[in-house]
Specification:
Number of strands: 6
Helix content: over 70%
Strand order of the largest sheet: 3-2-1-4-5-6
Low-confidence stretches: none
CATH class of the largest domain: Mainly Alpha
Structural class: mainly alpha
Number of domains: 2
CATH topology of the largest domain: Na+/H+ antiporter like fold
Strand content: under 5%
Mean pLDDT: 80
């Protein structure tokens, strides 16, 4: 009977998640707000249809899968490129926010140790909420998306020592040194992550290769099962040693990102991540959004929520400006990351159970964090509106490019944004490859920016524009402008100043391709040739020739033509 009760509750949760997504999408509202509302209605403080104690484990797995997906987007090389913002900007944000909240809590007569814990806990932002809102706004590839992710990663690293400190306070509030605890927790976390990394490097690639060796199973349930095994094993291994579930899943994601199977892994876990993350937001609503209590304490709730979001947003905005980010991005980041973290719920529950804080105070903190989460979509929309006005006021036309790319390196620089470039940007996005686009068409740029494309307005043949887009840090350049004269001029400028930088372009015909080789383009796709080869392949396929043989034939023709072009340009 108990099992049936749990099953019925899961059915209610799933039905609620389906209804919420459909209803809130039609109202053009964030599904995050819908999930929180649905949880409040059906949960512990509403209709009491679903018990949060029985179903919250499902929501925890949503965060685990989210962190694994984040890891998949970050190779070790990209994480190294982000280190300035993860360990610089992120660390300062946690330290300064924690310190200010700590001082405020001392003025409110909190115990010193408890003030440290609560201050650090409230300095963190919600990874689940922020990344979901960024995804809804299609800002994953923009500077806002990169900076937000960097700060969230540092906050996730902070969770490890914070958990240990809380555990010590629960056992003995005066007997152990918090500094020693932080050092021990950090060393333990590093040791665990090193063990996982070594084991992952030795086992993951052989495992995936063994699965993909059989083409009939490479994209089937066996690959999905293997991916789930890696996610859960990574999460369990860190939890076993007292480190957070999410950090283990994140590490596993980075290790998979280093293999050639990262895209298949991403596709395998996508349905689980979306579903479980929705259940996580519903569980938050079930546990914390007590409508009757909020009504009784509405003054305190509003004051605490405004105070928390104001303190965090001001600190984040100032730090972003200190790191030379655009004003528009700084304000967007400040409003987007101003909420409390899902980790605050775990923290408050521990403190209440250990009698370290008054249950009434703990409840105010929980409701404040939940309220701040619910406000995130609205605050983000406000930040987006403000950013548009600020960007319009930029006096120096190169300033948006400089500040918008200050945190990026090893990227693909795309010059021109026609239909081909749009397709290329989708492919790069899908594979998690960073890129920056420059185009001189104002309408095209603004339209693409609204869709989350990291694009800036500028003259692609102007060396100052190219320097502003950090061409010196780029991995390669792709010129897609349809103006052949401008294409040739741009290629010549780049090849003369950056002789080792790969330059790719497409040409209308073989004659133009030869001229581009002379201008310094290293890789050329003749459009007429490619169109002819694609059309020929359809004929060959209709005549019964295998796709493998067709691919071989096309490659032979390409190689022959490219060799001829290079000979002519020499």
């Amino acid at each position: 009977m108990q099992d049936f009760g749990l099953l019925a509750q899961i059915i209610v949760l799933l039905a609620g998640s389906v209804f919420v997504v459909v209803a809130f999408k039609r109202l053009n509202l964030s599904p995050v707000l819908g999930y929180l509302t649905a949880g409040a209605v059906i949960g512990d403080h509403g209709l009491k249809i679903v018990s949060s104690n029985k179903t919250e484990f499902l929501g925890e797995f949503g965060v685990v899968f989210l962190l694994f997906a984040i890891g998949l987007e970050l190779s070790l090389e990209r994480l190294k490129d982000m280190s300035k913002y993860v360990f610089g900007l992120g660390s300062l944000q946690v330290a300064i926010t924690s310190g200010i909240i700590f001082l405020i809590l001392l003025l409110l007569n909190f115990n010193v140790n408890v003030a440290v814990i609560v201050g650090m806990g409230l300095s963190l932002s919600s990874t689940a909420v922020v990344l979901e809102v960024i995804k809804e706004m299609q800002k994953e590839s923009t500077q806002l998306g990169r900076i937000s992710l960097a700060m969230l990663l540092q906050q996730d690293f902070t969770v490890v020592p914070l958990l240990v400190i809380t555990g010590i306070l629960l056992r003995d509030t005066s007997g152990e040194s918090i500094v020693q605890a932080i050092i021990f927790a950090t060393l333990k976390a590093i040791a665990v992550l090193v063990i996982i990394s070594v084991a992952g490097r030795l086992l993951l690639r052989p495992l995936f290769r063994a699965i993909s060796h059989n083409t009939q199973t490479s994209n089937s349930e066996l690959f999905v099962s293997a991916t789930l095994l890696i996610v859960l094993a990574g999460a369990w291994s860190t939890q076993y040693f007292g480190v957070s579930l999410a950090l283990g899943a994140f590490t596993a994601g980075i290790l998979v990102a280093e293999t050639e199977f990262s895209q298949q892994a991403k596709e395998s876990i996508y349905p689980f991540k979306g579903l479980l993350l929705g259940l996580f937001f519903m569980s938050v609503g079930m546990k914390t959004l007590d409508i009757q209590y909020i009504y009784q304490q509405i003054g305190k709730v509003i004051l605490c929520t405004i105070s928390l979001t104001l303190i965090k947003s001001i600190i984040i905005v100032l730090l972003c400006l200190l790191f030379k980010l655009r004003k528009s991005v700084a304000i967007q980041a400040g409003l987007l990351l101003a909420q409390g973290s899902e980790f605050a719920f775990i923290l408050c529950e521990h403190l209440i159970k250990g009698s370290l804080i008054n249950p009434e105070v703990g409840k105010i903190i929980l409701v404040t964090v939940a309220f701040s989460m619910a406000l995130t979509p609205l605050l983000s929309a406000i930040g987006n509106k403000i950013s548009v006005c600020l960007d319009d006021d930029d006096l120096n036309p190169l300033e948006p490019i400089k500040s918008g790319t200050v945190d990026i390196s090893n990227h693909v620089l795309i010059l021109g944004f026609n239909q081909a470039a749009k397709m290329i940007s989708k492919v790069l996005d899908f594979h998690g490859i960073q890129y920056v686009v420059i185009d001189d068409n104002e309408h095209c740029v603004k339209s693409a920016q609204q869709k989350g494309i990291p694009i800036f307005q500028g003259n692609i043949s102007n060396i100052a524009t190219l320097h502003a887009a950090r061409i010196d840090k780029a991995h390669s350049v792709l010129i897609t402008t349809g103006n052949f004269i401008e294409l040739k001029k741009t290629a010549k400028i780049i090849s003369e100043q950056y002789k080792e930088l790969p330059i790719s372009a497409y040409a209308a015909n073989l004659s133009n391709a030869a001229k581009l080789y002379e201008a310094g383009v290293t890789k050329i796709v003749p459009a007429s040739q490619e169109a002819g080869l694609q059309l020929a392949s359809t004929i060959l396929n209709d005549r019964g020739i295998s796709l493998k043989e067709i691919s071989r034939i096309k490659n032979n023709y390409r190689d022959a033509n490219y060799k001829m072009l290079k000979r002519e340009s020499e």
